[in-house]
Design goal:
The chain is an alpha+beta fold. The protein is about 15% helix and about 40% strand. It starts with 5 loop residues before the first helix and ends in a 12-residue tail after the last strand.
């Protein structure tokens, strides 16, 4: 989407790259897709704990930030997950192979601090949370580009 691969948008690699594709985005939100991987990094061959959904959400936020930086021609910086509020899930785990849709939307973004409404959906799955993030803009925190 928009000519950028996920590897262009996220500072993750290998087994830590949890998003599979960007479905759509705008300046305030992003929708991404995750195919639950049973590689043993976060779960087993059958399932991954639903709390890993927080990382799916955080990576979608990071991808949104990376996309906005690329479009604007700005330097990208690493971001940090500060906390999660109001986390609810109707499932204890995600089944391996399940296709999850991750929705993130900016509630507040100011001076590097951000609050995002996040949701993960799939048939029979609803996970919701608010994620608080921080992205300091310093030379020690910039994402290296090739």
């Amino acid at each position: 989407m928009n000519g950028y691969a996920l590897t262009d948008l996220l500072p993750h690699a290998g087994g830590m790259m949890l998003l599979d594709k960007i479905i759509r985005f705008d300046d305030q939100s992003m929708v991404a897709e995750v195919i639950v991987n049973g590689n043993g990094l976060f779960g087993d061959e059958q399932s991954v704990p639903a709390l890993v959904g927080i990382e799916y959400m955080a990576q979608a936020i990071s991808a949104h930030s990376g996309m906005m930086d690329k479009i604007a021609g700005r330097q990208s910086y690493l971001g940090f997950l500060l906390g999660t509020r109001l986390y609810t899930s109707n499932v204890a785990s995600f089944l391996t192979g399940a296709v999850l849709t991750v929705h993130v939307k900016i509630v507040l973004q100011e001076q590097g601090l951000g609050v995002f409404d996040c949701k993960i959906t799939a048939p029979g799955v609803l996970v919701e949370a608010k994620l608080n993030v921080y992205q300091p803009k310093s030379e020690h925190n910039r994402v290296l580009t090739e």
